[in-house]
Amino acid sequence: MDDPRSELFVLDQHLQPGILVLINDADWELEGEKAYEIQDGDNILFASTLHGG
């Protein structure tokens, strides 16, 4: 990825640990992960599962 913000989500060509990705309120793993092609109107959510104490 050429976008410098991608380092927030990607590490060594894989999704960073602790990032939950939802496509239209479904886990992206159920949508085929990288094989899924984003469609007009899709709702994409990136949520951190990590938290501070």
From TrEMBL:
Its main location: cytoplasm. Pfam families: Urm1 (PF09138). Keywords: Cytoplasm, Isopeptide bond, tRNA processing, Ubl conjugation pathway. Coiled coil: none annotated. Pathway: tRNA modification; 5-methoxycarbonylmethyl-2-thiouridine-tRNA biosynthesis. It comes from the Eukaryota. InterPro entries: Beta-grasp_dom_sf, Mopterin_synth/thiamin_S_b, Urm1. GO terms for cellular component: cytoplasm. It is found in: Cytoplasm. GO terms for biological process: tRNA thio-modification. PANTHER family: RURM1 PROTEIN. Belongs to the URM1 family. This is Ubiquitin-related modifier 1. It comes from Microdochium bolleyi.
